[in-house]
Design goal:
By secondary structure, the chain is an alpha/beta fold. It is built from eight helices and five strands; from the N terminus they run E-H-E-H-H-E-H-H-E-H-H-E-H. Bound molecules: adenosine-5'-diphosphate (ADP) and thymidine-5'-diphosphate (TYD).
């Protein structure tokens, strides 16, 4: 089973992905836990280029192709082999991040983004995608509290994040079978329970 987590930076994806992996491991499932961009040596090196604040002059097409390049290596080297062995794969971000951030956020042509996505994933798509939905105001509050410095992507501004959020919601609306939208303003425990019940439900189908 292939499970991905999506949402704005600071929405709580990593927290929930970690909790789900923990729960699955307690039940003795074999799991590959992957974060995007990254997950392989080549992909981690591409991640450094993408998130480096020195690279403020990066062109949007360069950005799109680098995220996609990192993903192609990840699918080829890790995700596809794991799925072939019927392992669980949990991804903290996957191809929907590209549609949301480079497509809706940066305003690149959605058909072009989708064509590149299809090539970079070799058509491998998650069985279920949890979209942790949260307002831009809420993530600003959380960032203030945690005091974490912003990377290059996070320096893109609030209107950019508003476009990314509405892009995600539009995508969830288009693919209601795959996407599960979870209100990210709820407590960590409540969200964890919603996600676990959904995974149980789907794995028994
Ligand atoms: P992301 O992976 O989406 O960037 P994280 O899981 O790293 O988000 O969470 C960002 C911050 O918000 C962390 O400090 C985390 O402890 C906090 N957080 C996560 N989920 C919740 C929640 N449901 N309510 C309040 N704070 C949360
Ligand atoms: P990361 O620190 O992994 O995300 P988060 O803050 O959500 O835990 O940073 C990844 C950044 O890259 C994040 O701002 C989203 C962005 N991104 C894209 O723009 N396109 C993509 O295809 C991916 C995978 C990420």
């Amino acid at each position: 089973m292939f499970i991905s987590f999506e949402g704005l930076d600071g929405s709580g994806k990593t927290t929930q992905a970690n909790l789900l992996v923990e729960t699955l491991r307690e039940r003795h499932h074999e799991i590959d836990f992957i974060r995007e961009p990254g997950g392989t040596e080549i992909s981690e090196r591409i991640r450094e280029i993408l998130l480096d604040k020195k690279h403020l002059g990066m062109n949007e097409i360069t950005e799109l192709l680098l995220f996609s390049a990192a993903r192609a290596q990840l699918v080829f080297q890790m995700i596809q082999p794991a799925l072939n062995e019927r392992r669980f794969v949990v991804c903290d971000r996957y191809v929907d991040s590209t549609t949301a951030y480079q497509g809706y956020g940066r305003g690149l042509h959605l058909d072009a983004v989708r064509a590149i996505n299809a090539a970079a994933t070799f058509g491998v798509m998650p069985d279920v995608t949890f979209l942790i939905d949260i307002s831009v105001e809420e993530i600003i509050e959380r960032r203030k509290k945690s005091g974490t410095p912003m990377d290059r992507m996070e320096s893109s501004g609030n209107t950019f994040y508003e476009r990314v959020r509405s892009g995600y919601l539009a995508m969830a609306h288009e693919e209601p079978q795959r996407f599960v939208v979870v209100d990210g303003a709820q407590s960590i425990e409540v969200i964890k329970k919603i996600i676990w019940e959904e995974v149980l439900n789907r794995s028994q189908r």
